Amino acid sequence: MAAARFGVESREGNMRLALAEAEKALAVQEVPIGCVIVRNCDGHVVARGRNNTVATGDATRHAEFEAIDAALAHADTGAIASDLFDACTLYVTCEPCVMCAAALRYAGFRHVCFGCRNDKFGGCGSALSVHQAPTGGTSFQVEEGVFAEEAIALLRRFYANENVNAPQARKRQRNAPAAAGSESVDAEVEASDVRACVSGGGSESQSAEG
């Protein structure tokens, strides 16, 4: 996976802002993924977003879409998205899903930094490499793994308290045994539950968050 190199201090500071947005999502029982859009020239935070699929009843309201819409709402009248986002970096706590990765291409982003991978639905190298596709919008560079453990911990907390928005059949006992080989997730939460969390609580009607 190609990697863009950003300053360590600013990169970590911006990801902490994204994690703070994810915490806000967790507080209202949304899948805890957060995002910030930062202007490269001066580090100004252009917009923030967090998952909002439950409150809106819209499975597309991922953190990236929320942040993009917020940025455009505050942009100068007549501003072109690609001109705005070409000069920005998007920081998100979980790898953008295929849908969001495609949206980032068409929005004109050149750089994206994310925390943990989205193994099942990730569009930046895990499931597909949408960010490097030869056609359709602008390709972008990615950097991964910034505060990945913190991002995963938020997903574990979401499922440790049970996802109240998941279909009943998908809910599990808190003390269910861990899936084999799932060292990256809490012993009380199966790896499949974390992936289901990223995909919107296990509902087939929702695509991967991020």
Class of secondary structure makeup: alpha/beta
Order of helices and strands: HEEHHHEHEEHH
Within the largest sheet, what's the order of strands? 2-1-3-4-5
- Taken from the alpha-carbon principal axes, the silhouette is globular
Runs in which pLDDT lies below 50 for 5 or more consecutive residues are 1-5, 172-208
Beta strand %: 5-15%
**What's the tally of helices?**
7
| Mean of all residue-level pLDDT scores | 82
Distance between the termini: 18 Å
> What's the main sheet like?
5 strands, mixed
According to DSSP, the number of beta strands is 5
Radius of gyration: 16 Å
Helix content: 25-40%
Structure notes:
- GO terms for molecular function: tRNA-specific adenosine-34 deaminase activity; zinc ion binding.
- It is a single chain.
- The protein is of the alpha/beta class.
- 34% of the residues lie in helices and 13% in strands.
- It contains seven helices and five strands.
- It has helices at 8-27, 53-56, 63-73, 81-85, 98-107, 148-160, 191-198, and strands spanning 34-39, 45-50, 88-94, 111-116, 141-143.
- A five-stranded mixed β-sheet has the order 2-1-3-4-5.
- A hairpin with a 5-residue loop joins strand 1 and strand 2.
- Helix 1 packs parallel to helix 6 and helix 6 crosses helix 7.
- It is globular and about 40 Å long.
- The two termini are 18 Å apart.
Short characterization:
By secondary structure, this protein is of the alpha/beta class. Helices cover 34% and strands 13% of the residues. The chain has seven helices and five strands.
